[in-house]
From TrEMBL, chains A, B:
Disordered as annotated region, ranges: 730-768
Record-given protein name: CSC1-like protein At3g21620
Protein's membrane topology: Multi-pass membrane protein
Keyword Transport appears in the UniProt entry: yes
Phylogenetic lineage: Eukaryota, Viridiplantae, Streptophyta, Embryophyta, Tracheophyta
Residue ranges of every copy of the CSC1/OSCA1-like cytosolic domain listed in the record: 197-359
Native source species: Gossypium stocksii
Annotated transmembrane regions: 6-28, 101-123, 155-173, 372-396, 416-443, 464-483, 571-601, 623-641, 647-664
Length: 768, 768
């Protein structure tokens, strides 16, 4: 058990390292050469231009204004100054609400800590159970519930506190849910006209022998939404094309690299080996090699594009259908279209940049099968992830390395190296796995078939939280792998589980305090330094960048990373709620984390992170749910702990807490969740009416027609789209011909307005 | 343990008693005097008239055609003859699909029994574990899994069978779900125009200081559904009025009784004591007394009606809103109207006769609180229901009776009476409780706030099933009260629970066989005799009936009783699935139950039961879910049983079964459940278009205006409604005046068409 002074030393180390990170950041950020690393958001918004362009040569790269070094912490108040409405405008509602999660932590834990320290700590402290017990103990334990003798009446304090904390948390949660819901509604209402307000995504369009997907969609919606249907946009299966485009980009990078190299040293043409990783094989001229490769790829790309637009099979069984009014779209998104509920599925179209195009045409049956596979895979990942790592570790020990690569033996046998390998290799396998975990979870979500980036991230976040709950939280409290725990739990009685965990909670307090300081304090401080983007940017800058546009591309602003960031915060909520009653000394550490993280991430959101999509805080129900789960876990564990303390009379009182909490959750779900899922008709009608009054001659078709084109087409077809757009207004919107008898050739897409916006039609039209 | 011959004797007794019931039924049903007891459905349909009207006097009451006695079982083929489409037409889809549950039982268990007897029974039989064990055993045990030695490889047979049974059950379930869903959709599509197709129930209309509920509803829907809104109907709080009407009916019965008595014996005017239960107090002339009472009640009723229609406070915050098209109603029912998801809640209006009027105006917050209260109450009811019964039992023993009523002592001390009381009284308390259980559960559902009778019955059914599962199924396997079980389970490890239950399952087979024969065979046969309605009908007939209309009212056709009948069937599904692997000898008994019940209930549905409402088989998802639950329970228990049999290698194979079953359930839920919850727009549009083409001049407003009037008003206002209906067509549908400044007096409801259909308006209009 660590004493208070041990904790003090650890705190000092972590505070110092956090301070060091801040200092390094303060120095690096005011160097003009790093400007694009630390302020990319402003570049993306076009509000800042390169400081390299003017001024003396040296001051282009290094800041020589020494006064600015003195104010090295002034970014903190600056980060706090931007008011919330401006922040929403600047970085989107997602980011602004994300910051509110940290604030929520402060709102919950500051009053709880105050109460705990004024009431509960004195109650704990004024016992001397531990002194009489003969066990070793520290001052921290004297402050905790461990110091209260078994069966003492003082446990009533903890019981009352448990109620107080639960009610306070629920109150804050409810208020926050209310605020976020109204922020979301206000954001959606006050926002500019956006294509997704008018558009619905239709999935699982059934195949039809007589009509193409495009015709079918048009006819279906003209018949079933006759007064509201405006146009539609079919979805092309451009996965291969975008692969090719990505490859071309990579090759182009290499070409740039060698061209730069050649320009700097024109005397020698750079050579390249064509074999594996450029290590062996025939030597060729690198510039020529890559030029040829780029050209070949360009040809492939245009061929592939041709194929996509001419082949009806590359049209996926999904479409974006636009309506004349928001009301029409709201109606279509919320209703069932067809008597078979697995075809003609409609839902709100995600923002165009939020669409995850690859998943748009997975049939219903496959979706359910994929879900089953992912559920099983995730179960094994969570409970058995230790097994493959153990195998890797057993393979990566010294004996097996010596066996496999005998020539390394003399080197390995050196004592320093040997101990290094022994101490380091097993850990590295685990570390690599944990590093790749978010990616693995993301791949799982993608496989599961979500159709927007925001949904992918939300799903990954809940999986990551579950993984952390099992493997970090429970794994630290009850040592042993997750699978061993699972096995224990199955063989333990239901009321033994909270007892086992609850009883070992007070003992792990110091461990978690250290964890919070390392992961929460120093980790958050390291986030602001952005070491990896800094290095990569300078590498790219040196090797690849030729034009200002290249430099733009070399920036890597990153995103908030909801799928990893939010589960981390949730772990702190869990720790705070669990330890609030048991070992209140943990609370100040958590409060410091929330405060620090709030400032740091506010700064990052304002200056660094790029907004990939805007889901208008659609993740809040998840956040709310997880805090509720943490609350219930804390209540169950407290019940387990108290029952080992022979305070059995408290059980009936404690068991009502989770019941009330679950009820509170259901109440909140009914009261606020619809704001995050559905779109009220009243709202839609109000905006429609306003818009009709303000802009009676609005050309909505023109506004919507190219909103939902696959980004691969968008980048290349800018000019062609213009041609198509001009033709729009001349076309009358007529109901196309009805179903005909069998026709074997695919339609030439002359029927109905919608097909004009397809690349196919664009191509035809742009021909002379 | 009962031997095969014991079972044979029990079977003989039950078959004989079933046969006796059938015989009694066969004789009673062909007596003309009982015609209204055994064929009320035909009277209700107006297809049969009283046999008392013509023929010789004796043959009016007794059937003298002795040939008809010979064919006493001919109702069975007759019951089976009516084809399903005709049955749907005759008794509604609910009843027809309800019968399919019995058929489903046959479809599942006949092939399973066949497989079990050809493969598993020989495997079990050819061991002699039991003979060597030295335990007492019966032939039944020799057929069961108990006869297989621990750790035997023969368990693989059971494992394969478990898979086969699961797949077969799932296959049948899926096919049935598909058929029922398409039956429902076909029924809804082919049905006549019904008011609920066009109508949506709006709950939680927010209060408004400026406008009455009626105006508010009209304005809201005129603004938000401008092209589809037709009219609306406010809901009056007529609970007190209907109480008064019911009381008047009761008093009227007494009045009739005494008038009849007086007519039969005009020499003596019947007297009545006014005190408690007519046992003491002043004697008065009964006819005069009740005549005065009826008159007073009539006055009260008209006063109350006046009050309701003139007082705006008696208008509840709910309304039935009708639309011009089915499409408009489908849209409104499926969408969220307002940004606050707890007001302006819309849902499909239930059928007019299905509406449960009392619950129409419970605010959202109260609903969630009520739900919590009912959940907690139901938990205690299920697990602690034994406690109050035990208290009653302890009060109702001989000593306490003697203490309370000492003068009874000599009677009680008689040996026969004493043993009767001792043996009978404790049982009677339990029996009374179980008799009232469905009523208690129904009251709970009503308190919870469901707004249609069908929903009330569905909810009661699931509660009743849960209660039976805990107290009949588990309670019989592990003897002890539910609370003791709960306590055991909490203190047992998670994998011990299926083991404990699983291990005692084979031992309880004979008990359940007896249970099936008593409850399933003889009970179902008793159902057809309708002893209680028979007696009550003849009593009423003798004392109250004067006119043909009175006789009509004396009939008590009853209903299917979904809330008690369906859970009973589900218990048999559970028993069948659980014992299919363990003791297959139980299966034939279950098959006989399903076959017998199918015939009996088909007969009852055709000839007896009245259809209270038509929910178009909305209960099928519940039925499906409960069979799935039974399947999963059977799999878990088999796992527990096999693990005690040292067939541990089967666990991983068995654990995939529940996973697959749950996945199957989720697949079915996604695939078929929407057909039971939502209404596809395509369907609605199709019917609208057809109707427009067929009846272009349809007066929909006239059709809809009085559909959703509280039945209390309906019965009395028949003539007034006619007046109102005529005025309808003259009224133009104009958009009412917009919101005005403060106005303190309630509106006189002259604005908009909707208010004309209110009783208030009717009354005003019917005045000279």
């Amino acid at each position: 058990m660590a004493t208070l002074s041990d904790i003090g030393v650890a705190a000092a180390i972590n505070i110092l390292s956090a301070f060091a990170f801040f200092l390094a950041f303060a120095i690096l950020r005011i160097q003009p050469v790093n400007d694009r690393v630390y302020f990319p958001k402003w570049y993306l918004k076009g509000l800042r231009c390169s400081p390299l362009a003017n001024g003396a040569f040296v001051s282009q790269f290094v800041n020589l204004d020494f006064r600015s070094y003195a104010r090295f912490l002034n970014w903190m108040p600056a980060a706090l100054q931007m008011p919330e409405p401006e922040l929403i405008d600047h970085a989107g509602l997602d980011s602004a609400v994300y910051l509110r999660i940290y604030l929520l932590g402060l709102k919950i834990f500051v009053p709880i800590a105050f109460l705990a320290f004024t009431i509960m700590v004195p109650v704990n402290w004024t016992n001397n159970t531990l002194e009489h017990s003969g066990l070793t103990f520290s001052d921290i334990d004297k402050l905790s519930i461990s110091n209260i003798p078994n069966g003492s009446l003082r446990f009533w304090t903890h019981l009352v506190m448990a109620y107080a904390f639960t009610f306070w948390t629920c109150y804050v949660l409810k208020r926050e849910y209310e605020i976020v819901a109204s922020m979301r509604l206000h954001f959606l209402a006050s926002e500019q006209r956006r294509p997704d307000q008018f558009t619905v995504l239709v999935k699982n369009v059934p195949p039809d022998p007589d009509e193409s997907i495009s015709e079918l969609v048009e006819h279906f919606f003209l018949v079933n939404h006759p007064e509201h249907y405006l146009s539609h946009q079919v979805v092309y299966n451009a996965n291969k094309l975008s692969e090719l485009v990505n490859e071309k980009k990579k090759i182009q990078n290499w070409l740039d690299y060698y061209q730069n190299k050649y320009e700097r040293n024109p005397s020698k043409r750079p050579l390249l080996k064509t074999g594996f990783l450029g290590l062996w094989g025939e030597s060729v001229d690198a510039v020529d090699f890559y030029t040829a490769k780029t050209e070949r790829l360009s040809r492939d790309i245009s061929l592939e594009r041709e194929k996509i637009t001419s082949n009806p099979k590359s049209i996926m069984a999904a479409a974006f259908v636009s309506f004349k009014t928001r009301w029409g779209a709201a109606v279509c998104a919320q209703t069932q279209q067809c008597r078979n509920p697995t075809i003609w599925l409609t839902e709100w179209a995600p923002e165009p940049r939020d669409v995850y195009w690859e998943n748009l045409s997975i049939p219903f049956v496959f979706l359910t099968i994929r879900r089953l596979i992912v559920a099983v895979a995730f179960f094994f990942l969570t409970f058995f992830f230790v097994i493959p790592i153990a195998i890797v570790q057993s393979l990566a020990n010294i004996e097996s390395i010596e066996k496999a690569l005998p020539f390394l033996k003399p080197i390995i046998e050196v004592k320093v190296i040997k101990s290094f390998i022994q101490g380091f290799l097993p850990g590295i396998a685990l570390k690599i796995f944990l590093l790749f975990l978010p990616t693995i979870l993301m791949i799982m979500s993608k496989f599961e078939g979500f159709i927007s980036l925001s949904a992918l991230e939300r799903r990954s976040a809940s999986r990551y939280y579950f993984f952390q709950f099992i493997n970090v939280f429970l794994g630290s409290i009850i040592t042993g792998t997750a699978f061993q725990q699972l096995n224990n739990f199955i063989h333990q009685s239901t009321n033994e589980i909270p007892k086992t965990i609850g009883a070992s909670i007070p003992m792990k307090a110091t461990f978690f305090i250290t964890y919070i300081m390392v992961d929460g304090w120093a980790g958050v401080a390291a986030e602001i330094l952005r070491l990896k983007p800094l290095i990569i940017y300078h590498l790219k800058n040196f090797f690849l960048v030729k034009t200002e546009k290249d430099r733009e591309e070399a920036m890597d602003p990153g995103t908030i990373g909801f799928n990893t960031g939010e589960p981390q915060i949730q772990l702190y909520f869990l720790l705070g709620l669990v330890y609030a009653i048991v070992t209140p000394i943990l609370l100040p550490f958590i409060i410091v984390f929330f405060a620090l993280a709030y400032v740091v991430f506010r700064h990052q959101i304002i200056n660094v992170y790029n907004q990939e999509y805007e889901s208008a805080a659609a993740y809040w129900p998840d956040v709310h749910l997880r805090i509720i789960v943490a609350l219930i876990v804390s209540q169950l564990l407290l019940m387990g702990l108290l029952s080992t303390k022979e305070a059995a009379s408290s059980t009936p009182l404690l068991i009502t807490l989770p019941v009330l909490t679950i009820w509170f959750h259901r109440f909140c779900k009914g009261r606020y969740e619809p704001a995050f899922v559905r779109n009220p008709l009243q709202e839609a009608m109000m905006k429609d009416t306003l818009e009709r009054a303000r802009e009676p001659n609005l050309n909505l078709k023109g506004f919507l027609q190219n909103a939902y084109i696959h980004p691969v087409f968008r980048s290349a077809d800018d000019d062609k789209i213009h041609v198509a757009m001009e033709e729009w207004e001349e076309e009358p919107s007529l109901i196309a011909t009805k179903r005909r008898s069998k026709r074997s050739t695919p339609l030439s897409s002359k029927h109905g307005g919608s097909s004009f916006s397809s690349p196919e039609a664009n191509k035809e039209r742009s021909k002379p």
